[in-house]
Amino acid sequence: MSPCPICGTDCQEDWLSCPRCGWDVTPESRGAIAENPSHLYWGRSLWQRLDQEVTLNRRLAMLEQRLFDLEQRQQMLTWPTQPSDSDWLYSPLATYLSQQNWREADGWTWQRILEVAQVGERLWLEPEEIANFPQQELQALDELWYSYSQGALGWSVQADIWWESAGQYSQFCDRVGWRSQGTWLYYDDLYSQGDAPRGHFPILPWRKRSCYGVGGFTAAELLDHWMARFPPSHDGGI
Ligand SMILES: [Zn+2]
């Protein structure tokens, strides 16, 4: 017996798939996961998020579909010269993330958000635009950050910290490394590559320095609006 890598259910060695979550538990699959742990983090996070929300069948169908999608994405990353590569919208982000180039990934993410929100010349989102920002887009971006960072980065990670910090911005900043020993960090001071504190990226509520905010709103206000999109325990959220 060995536990399913996704849901932890004990599986016999000769079983092909996990009876609970449907994950492929063959030795080949386990070997592939060891080489590509982002699949594992991604699958787990999806499983946890879906666990309480939908029926088993629906859950399995979605998991399979998402994993299939992820395989497709992964293939595109593996063969970047493939013509279909440019068809995938998030390829640049996935590439930056796979290189642990958080700064470039963050810049791309921010541009993408401005573009999706259709803010025109403006370089920030109004609270109402944050509230109405498309859930699907938010989810797609967050899942990429989360899976490529092996569960260390992304808004759902920040949301956990935010709700644990009871919405105290300075406490949140100390924990994600936006403030260090009482000093509010500038964008250039961040851990732009490789190891970074949990929840360090992406940056939504500020762009220049963590105490400033953007567009006439304080960083604390803006973060509060964004984190409202990721309610505690993810109920109804992503
Ligand atoms: Zn399972």
Automatic annotation (TrEMBL):
Residues 85-204 form the GUN4-like domain. It comes from the Bacteria. Pfam families: GUN4 (PF05419). CDD domains: GUN4. Transmembrane segments: none annotated. This is GUN4 domain-containing protein. It comes from Phormidium yuhuli AB48.
